Model the fold of this input.
Amino acid sequence: MSLLKTKLNRRKFLAYSGGTLAAGAMASKFSTIKAVASEHGKQSKESGSKTVPSACAICVNKCSLFADVKDGVIHKLNPNHNFFKSRSMLCARGNVGAKVPYSPDRLKKPLIRTGKRGEGKWKEVSWDEAYDYIIENVIKLINKYDNRSSIAFASTEGLQEEFFRHLTSVVGSTNSVRHPTLCLASNIQGYSSVYGTLPDADIANAKFVVMAGSNRAEAFITPDTIDLAKKHKEQTFVYLDPRATKSAAIADKWFPIKPGTDMAVVLAMINVIISEELYDKEFVNKYTHGFDQLKEHVKENTPEWAEKESEIPADEIRWMARKFAENAPASVWYPGRRSSFTANDVYYRRACAILNAIVGAWDRKGGLIPKSGISLKSHEFIFPLFGRVKSRIDGGKVSFAADVLPEYIKSNKGMPKDEVAYLSEADGSWVLFRDAILKQKPYPVKGMFVYKQNPVESVPNRSKTLEMLKSMEFICTIDIQMSDTAWYSDVVLPESTYLERWDPAHSLGGVAPVVIFRKPVIDPLFDTKSMKDITVDLTERFLKKDEYWVDAWEEDKAYMRDYVKTFKGVPMSHIIKHQLSDYPGAYKMLMEKGCFYKTDKIPYGKTLKEGARLKTKTGKIELASVRYPEAGLYALPVYQKPSEAPQGKYRFVVGRHAQFTQANTQNVPYLLEAYGHYTNMLWIHPKSALKQGLNDGDYAIVKSSVGEQKVKVHVTEYTRPDTVFYLHGFGRLSKWLTNVYKVGASDAEILEDYAETISGNALLHETFVEIKKA
Amino acid sequence: MSENSRALKLAEANQKLAHKRRNAKEKWGIVLDTSKCIDCKACTVACKMENYVPVGFYNYRIWVAEDTHYANYPTISRSFQPSQCQQCENPPCVHVCPTHASYKTADGVVMVDADKCILCKYCMTACPYDARYESHSTEAIDKCTFCYQRRDEGRDPACVETCPPKVRVFGDLNDPNSEVYRLLAENEYTVLKPGKGTKPKLKYIK
Done:
């Protein structure tokens, strides 16, 4: 065996053995990229291994984790087994976070645009130069338009977002626009109108679960996802979706419901439960308002009627209704995590909430549970009350509000035509907001700060968003990668990734709340800062400019000096200690266990105690809303037949995939390969493909009234013949997203920009497309 | 240190650990309940991170396959089969290896000594499960080691630890008090390609 003491190569061995073999080396597409990545960034001087607690930031769930760091380089991110909310897991995206700081596509230095917008010509500048540029432009805009609200602030969420919100207040703008109206605003509104809050579901203890559209297996991996997958043998899980997604794999029944008709099914279930007297009479009497009105309202909504609408057999609807009542209170019509489908969305969510209420599946084991939180101490800041400020551009009466409604719902009495009835002051309504900017009604908005959001890819009708950006005189984007929005900006500030910075403690609300935080797993690799540092630095610089404060009081400046003092040079650990100061031992637990909680038990029945009130007008569960009629809306959910696909067209539906967080992680090579392809594809049913003359693997042009995209065809039985789909987040415009730049098709490009006017949510299933062979 | 040298360092450390554990009495195995699998790929990505498996479709130690029984709209049933090296008690890859690079540790884990591997790929041909790939980091054939580097710390392999619905349970098949032992006693199970006589230590609950 002396032969084997030294490493033999294959050639040598073959020489010894005289054999011949075929070579089959398969070079990896990304091997060169990775080599480049490791050569960039500061080399760590650390040696040895350490384990650091922190929390993930790849999606909104913020799962606690422990990072294994070897010689100053992240080796692996592991799940934190103390963090009961993640059920001891870290998903694919959470795992790949280990590579995020080392991505060659990261933003590494502040950049100022030198060429035309979108041309991709940049110069690297120092932070000072970038700040000077920003300060100069902000002051110029405020003076030019005599209005601080002429600068808009767009963001999503995250533990550093509060500092971006602070920046909004330091600039004094009222125009902040956040993610909810591209996401769950209608859901929050619908459930809140019934329960005063958007609850979670106690999936771990539910016996009968109906999920419509929300694709838990492929969207964010939440506790609900895991409990459904774990418990599927013990509980009955009915899944309604035009597509047979991976959630269908763990479902007992999958119904390919006709898109937009979900409410018909819910109303029919309510009809069966009431007419067969299966509802919880005691619960209804004690805790709800408006049952008699509801009873009258659903009289005509029989399962036979709903079958014609939804294409789900009446017998199946009847079976669902009976099972729903039989298993109550451990029954759930799943409330969470899905953006608006059609214009009737708020009423639809109301109907879902009502269904759970009449069987008493509220705040009891296995039903819907109001979220709890752990309240943390916060620093109370007094932000300046500037003079040159106007109210929100999309707030109050909006003359063109009716224009965002799809045609078929415009005559509907339950839909406001001159405003968004329940517009959130902090969140706005993206679709209306953008229209208002383009129309300059009631005033011009010409500057924009964008933090971590990517409206170019996330707001329907991409061309319109680009037009809006074009109309801006100044755009500053803060991100870790060159998003498509950053690509069209004037100045781009690189943020440190979540693994390179401290983040404040944060209470994750839910059926059982828990607190997480972040501390640096590694030192920043590049010349990057946290959003906190950026806001503090800018505030400090504004304080040096007297002309900035002409419309403020002297005290305002003093408050802002205090603000800078609170954060500048103060370690985040001190801030976290302050946040947790009400709970002895909490800081220690957080640092050692990676999370802090008081109990992992679910506190059932808080809202059912004697004297408890819900945050509704009556304090009860409002089956019939008291506030809605006052605002000219329907008290009860009125079904609206969705529009039919015009001849030769298909309804386009959107959806998510377990590897991708909105439009954020498509550029990560490990996730592209876990997804299984390097591009997205058009799902089309074989019958429809035949009709359009398309074969699997062909390319097709998908065209709506606002745009068109070329995409590879995937012929599949997993979708309805009248419905087509392709995945979000491909076909990108930023050249620095090297793996997805112009790869595949963008859904933002073809989605028509409708919204509903109760919550202001964008409508993502109201687009019909033509499909032709490319 | 580059990713390649990390991979090599890990491979060497595992050889040393296998030697250190030469009197180990355990028989490691995994019991899987694939009905819980939602094909989220947490396991495959975690494996790549833990073991420095390079990016690329053809580099993998573990995988998830879709099992479509029938797909005739609207009667559709989907299910997934996560899999990896079956850690056979009778491993054909070890038998065919001309340089003894493929070997079985005392605790029954099939591993590859990168120093001895000459990339002849006999093992890849012999493996009925397609569980091996050519690694450009170690210039050797690479495969699942049950994350052998975690054995001394008593930690689960990365795929087991990270899985959201806990499809896999890892443990000592010899230990009557282990969870894997209990699961096999309480459930009907099968192995992949039993006809090959490889005696896999991955057991799939029916």
